[in-house]
Amino acid sequence: MARKKKQNLEELNQTHAKVEEKQYQTLDQIWGDDGAHRYGTFSEDEYMNQLNAMTRSDLQNHAVKMNLIPIDNMRMLRERLLNEFRRHNNSYLKVSTTKKVQDDNIPDVAKKILSEGR
Q: Is residue 105 part of a domain?
């Protein structure tokens, strides 16, 4: 009976079907949604200018479109809309994990404390 040759792990390849160059946070991003259509901008200053230019009824209509309860207090409504805008932007931000701490930036006292655990 012929024996099958055992393969080394280095010779084996496995496909994971991931796109390596882009990192997505949500399913909407995978389907091509970049998130800009909801507010028209990712700039907080530009969005604040849009909110400040709106009348009370415009703000309340905008709040309904953003699934918020339109309240009568204009200041609180603007704050809620801005918080919702920030939450939306944060869901589309790419988190960078490549930043490394340089030893030059660590104070000597911290280095001494960290070296005690070795």
A: no
